[in-house]
Amino acid sequence: MPDYTKYIQEAKAGQEQAFKYLLDLFWRDVYRFQLKRTGNEYEAEEITIQTFSKAFEKINTFKESYSFKTWLIAISKNIQIDLSRIKSATTASMIDLEEYEALVDENDTAEDQIIKEQNLNILLHYLKQLKPHYEQVIRLRYFREMSYKEIAQQLDEPLVNVKVKLLRAKKMLADKIKNTPKSV
Question: Which keywords appear in this protein's UniProt record, sorted alphabetically (predicted)?
Answer without folding.
Answer: Sigma factor, Transcription, Transcription regulation
